[in-house]
């Protein structure tokens, strides 16, 4: 398999999935190209597959852009410190499934390569 990518957003401030968060995937090499846009589901996962079953997969540097500012703005008083959180990852052919979880709050975030 060429490779495919999924993501999962968790709102660690409230202990709930990050539902309704806009996510974009950009391929940055050789020039920036928007690959896909999606919105996370009620369980915080990407609704539409990024590179489903390797379709259109191109190895190289990519960037996921998570719209957490709008998400937290819609959840009550105050605004998030972050607006759009970019996470750059290098995707290589033959590596199978890439999973990039984002754990976030209005004031911080962390990520890692999941499984």
Task: Please write out the topology.
Elements: E1 4-11, E2 16-17, E3 22-27, E4 33-39, E5 60-66, H1 68-73, E6 85-91, E7 97-105, E8 108-111
Parallel strand pairs: 1-7
Antiparallel strand pairs: 1-2, 3-4, 3-5, 5-6, 7-8
Largest sheet: 4 strands, mixed
The percent range for strand residues is: 35-45%
Distance between the termini: 16 Å
- Going by CATH, the architecture would be Sandwich
Mean pLDDT: 89
**Main sheet: strand order:** 2-1-7-8
Strand/helix succession: EEEEEHEEE
Protein name: 5-hydroxyisourate hydrolase
Function: Catalyzes the hydrolysis of 5-hydroxyisourate (HIU) to 2-oxo-4-hydroxy-4-carboxy-5-ureidoimidazoline (OHCU).
Keywords: Hydrolase, Purine metabolism
Subunit structure: Homotetramer.
Could you describe the 3D structure shown?
- The protein is mainly β and 115 residues long.
- It has one helix and eight strands.
- The chain has a four-stranded mixed beta sheet, with no helix packed on it.
- Strand 3 (22-27) and strand 4 form a beta hairpin.
- The model has no long low-confidence stretch (mean pLDDT 89).
- Residues 5-114 form the Transthyretin/hydroxyisourate hydrolase domain.
- Keywords: Hydrolase, Purine metabolism.
- Belongs to the transthyretin family. 5-hydroxyisourate hydrolase subfamily.
Structure summary:
The protein is mainly β and 115 residues long. The protein has one helix spanning 68-73, and strands at residues 4-11, 16-17, 22-27, 33-39, 60-66, 85-91, 97-105, 108-111. This is 5-hydroxyisourate hydrolase.
